[in-house]
């Protein structure tokens, strides 16, 4: 999906430059200081995983990896023009549903547990309130098309976090902090219809701080730090 989107993003401007000038839709869009809309999209969340150096000798752990799991999001768009059509401040309070998986691979199964698997998986579910604040740098309109890039930050609150939950020693789970703070970069394309603007956007988020809570269970002891990372694909409608 990322490669296809980037190919379209790079190819589209060169195609449009070769086109004849068309009648512009929604001519008053850039005259208005503020716009509202909504966003629908999909995401893939995972972790940057850092383990201790002695996990093999201590636990027989040969690898610990993070798998990307699909999720989704919906948000309300507020876009403010900062004195020029090519620079806007955008705020999209978002409800996102994310899931991440950690895969543990062991050299040998645990001899103390009957039928202990060599590969184990731990899944971490999140229902987040995200508050991305982005600067949008947009090209001038080419007929009914424009492209843009984004940079900004995103505080997040995980409504499903088990940060304060009592650990289950018999069936332990990974604990992560409820609050997170991420940097974001992205790019997108916009198409102007007669009465609204439609956009497609790809973003990447990366945590600035460790999201992992060490509580000394068998599944958490090998882990040093976990950093959230998310790829976001969004469809954005503004009126």
The CATH architecture would be Beta Barrel
User: By helix and strand content, what is the structural category?
Assistant: mainly beta
Tally of DSSP β-strands:
12
The major pleated sheet works out as:
10 strands, antiparallel
What proportion strand?
over 45%
The number of domains is 1
The name CATH uses for the topology is: Porin
- What gyration radius follows from the Cα positions, in whole Å? 22 Å
* Helical content band: under 10%
Listing every helix as H and every strand as E from the N terminus to the C terminus, the arrangement reads HEHEEEEEEEEEEE
Give the averaged pLDDT, no decimals. 88
Name of the level-1 CATH class: Mainly Beta
Number of helical segments?
Answer: 2
Molecular structure report:
The protein has helices spanning 2-17, 55-59, and strands at residues 34-51, 61-84, 87-91, 94-106, 119-130, 133-138, 145-158, 175-176, 179-192, 197-207, 212-213, 223-238. The chain has a single domain, classed as Porin (Beta Barrel). It is built from two helices and twelve strands, in the order αβαβββββββββββ. The longest helix is centred in the N-terminal third of the chain and has 16 residues, at 2-17. The strands form two sheets. Strands 1, 2, 3, 4, 5, 6, 7, 9, 10 and 12 form a ten-stranded antiparallel sheet that branches. It has a two-stranded antiparallel sheet with strand order 8-11. Helix content is 9%, strand content 57%. The protein is mainly β.
